[in-house]
Amino acid sequence: MRFLPLATAFSIVAATSAIAAPPVQTVNTDKGKVIAAENGMTLYTYKKDEKGESYCYDKCAANWPPYLADASAKAEGEYTLVERKDGKKQWALKGMPLYFWIKDAKKGDVTGDGVGKVWDAARP
């Protein structure tokens, strides 16, 4: 019984730290190392965005889904949060919002890199 409160406290701390930064990983691709979400899918930045602000909505967001954060997520290190027009939070790297590309099909795909000369794979 004495360890139950410690176990509970550990669970709370673990849960809190799990939302402190986005679950990302570095993935090797044919274009070098890129940052990918927990699911292994490459993340991208949009040159028309500004630090701390997304300009990708409607049709753009249908093709480039934002990397959304849980409502209780907290920024950590180079990973920050951007509030979208709909009130949802989006992960950002060094202030630049992060997105997926609907044409990437599997881990390591970087088919969105360079699209329209305004989309870049996020790099470590």
TrEMBL record:
Residues 1-20 form the signal peptide. Transmembrane segments: none annotated. Keywords: Signal. The keyword Transit peptide does not apply. InterPro entries: Lipoprotein_repeat, UCP029720. The keyword Signal applies. PANTHER family: BLL4220 PROTEIN (PTHR39335). This is Lipoprotein with Yx(FWY)xxD motif. It comes from Rhizobium herbae. The lineage of its organism: Bacteria, Pseudomonadati, Pseudomonadota, Alphaproteobacteria, Hyphomicrobiales.
